[in-house]
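Ticket reopened. Same input as before:
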Amino acid sequence: MSRMISYRDALNEAMVQEMRRDPRVFVYGIDVADHKRIFMSSRGLVEEFGPDRCFSTPLAEDAMTGFGLGAAIAGMRPIHVHMRVDFLLLGMNQLINMIATHRYGSGGRFSVPMVIRAIIGRGWGQSFQHSKTLQSWFAHIPGLKVVMPSTPRDAKGMLVAAIRDDNPVIFIEHRWLYDVVGEVPEHADEVNLDGAKVIHPGSDITVVATSWMNVEAVKAAEILEKRGVGMEVVDARSIAPFDCQTIIDSVRKTRHCIVADNDWTHCGFSAEVAATVYEACMGQLRAPIRRIGFAPTPCPCTRPLENEFYPTAVDIIRAAEETLKLSETDLSHEDFYSYENKFKGPF
Amino acid sequence: MKEKELNLSLYQKTYLIRRAEDAIRANYASDKMKTPMHMSAGGEAIAAGVCQALRPQDQILGTYRSHGIYLAKTGETDEFFAEMYGKATGMAKGKGGSMHLTAADGGLICTSAIVGTTIPVAVGAAYANKMQKTGKVVAVFFGDGAVDEGVFWESLNSACVMKLPVLFVCEDNGFAVHIPAEQRHGYKSIVEIVKHFNCNVFSAETTDPEAICKLTLQAIEAMGRTQRPSFLHLTYYRYLEHVGINEDFDAGYRDRAEYEKWRKADPVVLQRKNLANWLSDEEIKAVERTIDDQIEGSVRRANEAPFSRPQALYEDVLA
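Engineering reply: fixed in the latest deploy. New output:
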């Protein structure tokens, strides 16, 4: 049975059901058990499972990342939560030098079943230390899985799969997705951690998107659909391992490709997607691949500059028009997403 | 354990470490052991004494200088030497080398080439043991250089506030690589500072394995009694260079006279004297021959063993 719930509730439900199923699962991190409960995604956990299995930690991201490694090796299944991806930078030594290598360095005798949830901030003045994504940093390193679910269904299913996986999984959530509502099964069904997914079908152009950029891409596809242009949106979902086949299949059909990554483009995931598509589809492409991402600057605080920093559905529409050599669509009557409708701040 | 058995076991451990490293030194020039060796020589009393106090199911973690604790905890030399020779029969199939030792069944979780990095891992393992009521003790070894790292303080603080059964073992040889403590520490005494944390603090400057074993037992007992971590500070002298198999007194950062002073209280010689209270010289020589034969056999088998096949490169990245 499915019902409509939010991304936030889907995350919460995945943790609750897995903690009921498996006493080895525990949730920890700065403020996971405080009154705000990580934007309410960890609500109810400390009440049901007690302070030994859901606890706030000292401000010690480095040690607490290594703590998860030790707990995982010794038989537990940790979920470490960071309110911003940016804070995970303090744990990079443990993540890259220790966690990612532990299985390899032990000749396969140890495994590290560990989930690190990290949230991307955006809007209402998040500025340059609360807004990073960094998925290509993590995905660059062998030994880590990296996923970025963009729907409530995937948020639940991929978190369930991540908790059950015997590898370290970086689970990146966009704060703006928390209020997205969608159909989610009541049962704790897994969604594979290694597959991209076509979330909007089309035959004229492929847009490969990550995280929040899927919302922008679907909006762009809906607008272009009205003038008969078929935009296929592929949610990459899994950054590592990377499911290039679903993307290649789509591009072979549409022969046009845009990559809209929720990140900077330089040395980023969008470059990886573009290179992979070129390697597989060079002769079939009818136009160069275009990449859309953040402006190559730190993220600014003030709204007018932030508007310049982030790409939107409009940028995807304009890129598609140029790629397909179409005239500009009249967007004057379209209604685009504005966070002011959701947030009053602070958050 | 009776005093005789205790002293025999301690001697077996110290002698095994010293002779295994002698074998590394004797064979290093062949250039078949292509791995950076950080030798334990001089620190055998700590490895033997602390590991003697632990039970087989207890867990340890160490640094890049961990030959001593691996050998003391496991008594095993086949996988050890095979790993040094980079062979498929090594515990990490040759992927780790001297700085990355593990013993999944022997209780060695890992050692690390980056200073301080195993300390928080030990705290997490202690949490897992507490949650699963395994009763296991986790001991993490680190040098005095590690206390310069923020992660040491984060880990100590976290373990104290979470009341976790973890034994912090600071092996203090006075140098972080080549930099003496006076140039690194803006305080007088690490032991005095740690006393302000909610944990049990013990310290000693001795090369006597039996004394260290008994102090470790006190530290473990205190951990169980107080439900707090214990911190054990042990001073020793590193005989050889930071990395490599040679002496380095000509480098000028430390004085041979200091070495000669410590050498007079060499832990292996000291423990042999301890054991002589219980065994005759002939009996001790028989113990030594058994260990020498074990090492010789392991070195021979490591030499003869195959390297991992090329495909092994891609294995064990993910489960």
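Chain B is about 45% helix and 10% strand. Chain B has a mean pLDDT of 97. Please confirm and we'll close it.
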